[in-house]
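Q: What would this chain look like folded?
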Amino acid sequence: RFGARYRVSDVVAMHANWGENFSLNTGTDRNGEGFGPETGRGYEVGIAANLPGVDIAATWFDIRQQDILTTDPADANFLAPVGSLVSRGIELDASARLGNRWQIVANYAWLDAEADDAAFPTPDVLNVPEHSGTLLVVHRIPTLRGDWQLSGGAAYVGDRAGSLTAVPVVLPEYVKIKAAIEAPIVDGLRFRLEAD
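A: My prediction, written as C-alpha cells:
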C-alpha cells in the first residue's frame, strides 16, 4: 500500500492512496475442490478542509477484486468465487462544532458495486446499498476524571440485493436510531456502550 498527503494551504489538504491485497480462501466448492486466493487493488483520491468550527472531506474511490467468495447460485449450501467485483463511489464527511460541548457529525456514501461473472444471473452484489448515511449529535460533559460523551442520531441504509438469483430479492431501505454513552474509568481507559 502507498499513500500521500499534500497540504495545499493551512485549511485545505489533498490525499491519494493505492494498494493491492492478497488473501487465501479456505473451504471447498460443491465439487469438493479448493478455492484460489482472493486478490484486489484499489485507489482513492480526496480533499479535506479544516474551516473554523467545521471539518469537511470528500473522497472518490475505485476498488477491484477477484475471486471473492459468495453463495453459490447453483447450490446455496456452498460457496463460489465471483470472477471480479468492481466497487466505486464517493464518500462525504462533515463535522460541525457548536461551542465547546456540542458537535454534529454527518456522512454520506454513494456506492456503485457490480460483479462480472457469467455464472451469476445478476451483476448485483449481496447486501451492498447504493446510498447510505449517518447523522449524529455528540454532547461532551466535563468531569474531574475526564469528559463523558453522549451521542444520538440515525443511520440510513438504502435498498440492496438479498439474493443473486435471476429474479433477485431486494432488501428494503431502513433507518435505525443510534445512541451511545462513553465514560472515563481511569487514565487511558474508557467505557463505551452503544445501542442501535
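Residues 71 and 162 are 11 Å apart (CA to CA).
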